[in-house]
Amino acid sequence: MTEAPLAAVSAVHASGLHSFSKFAEPCIRLLAGLGVEGDAHAGVTVQHRSRVARNAAAPNWRQVHLLHAELFDELMAAGFAVWPGDLGENITTRGIDLLGLATGTRLHIGDAVVVEVTGLRNPCSQIDRFQPGLMAATLGRDAQGGLVRKAGIMGIVLTGGDVRAGDPIGIEPPLGLFQPLEPV
C-alpha cells in the first residue's frame, strides 16, 4: 500500500433522501457491504432509482461516491457555484488522482476503513437541472479523443468505520494488469 503525498479526505457528506446533493457532516460511518450509514444509497443491492427500475436485485457497486476537490476548483474557475456535497458525493478527496486509479484499487481511509473502487460515476441529466451547462463541464476528452467522465468514482465498503475530513488516504493497487475505470 502506498500513501499519495497529502492524499486526504477534505469533506464528508450523507443524505437519507434520494436528492441530488448531500449534506456536510462532521463524520460519516461506513458499513461493510452496505455503504454510508443513513444514506439513501446504502444497501447490498442497487439503490439508485434509475438502476432499481432496471433490476432491483442487482448488486450495489455504488455504495460510496468519492469525488476529487480539484474538480470543484476547476468548476468554480469556469464560473459554476458548486461546493463539496453539491454533486452528491459522500467523500470529497484532495491530492489523489481518483480518475486514474485502476478498477479494484483499495483505498485505506483513516485508521480502519477500506473502500474498493468499482468504477466511474456516470454523470446524468440531474447535473444540468442543478446548474445548466454543468454536465458538459464534468465531461472532457483525452488526447485520443475518448470521453473523460470527471464526476468521481464509486466503490464498495470492505471494512467499515468512521471517516472525517483530514483522514489520510492510502492506495493499494490491485494485483495483475491495470484495468481502467469504466462507468458503473
The radius of gyration computed from the alpha-carbon positions, rounded to a whole number of angstroms, is 15 Å
Strand order of the largest sheet: 1-6-5-11-8-7-13
What is the overall pLDDT average? Answer: 94
Distance between the termini: 25 Å
**Looking at the structure, what is the overall shape?**
globular
Largest sheet: 7 strands, mixed, barrel
Q: Ranges with pLDDT <50 over ≥5 residues?
A: none
Helix fraction bin = 10-25%
**Number of H/I helices:** 4
InterPro entries: MoCF_Sase_C (IPR005302), MOSC_domain (IPR052716), Pyrv_Knase-like_insert_dom_sf (IPR011037)
Protein name: MOSC domain-containing protein
Organism: Variovorax ginsengisoli
Domain MOSC: 19-172
Structure in words:
This is MOSC domain-containing protein. It comes from Variovorax ginsengisoli. Residues 19-172 form the MOSC domain. InterPro entries: MoCF_Sase_C, MOSC_domain, Pyrv_Knase-like_insert_dom_sf. Pfam families: MOSC. The chain has one domain (2-172): PK beta-barrel domain-like (M1 Pyruvate Kinase, Domain 3). It has a seven-stranded mixed barrel. Strands 4-3-12 form a three-stranded antiparallel β-sheet, with no helix packed on it. The two termini are 25 Å apart. The protein is built from four helices and 13 strands. With 184 residues, the protein is mostly beta strands. The model has no long low-confidence stretch (mean pLDDT 94).
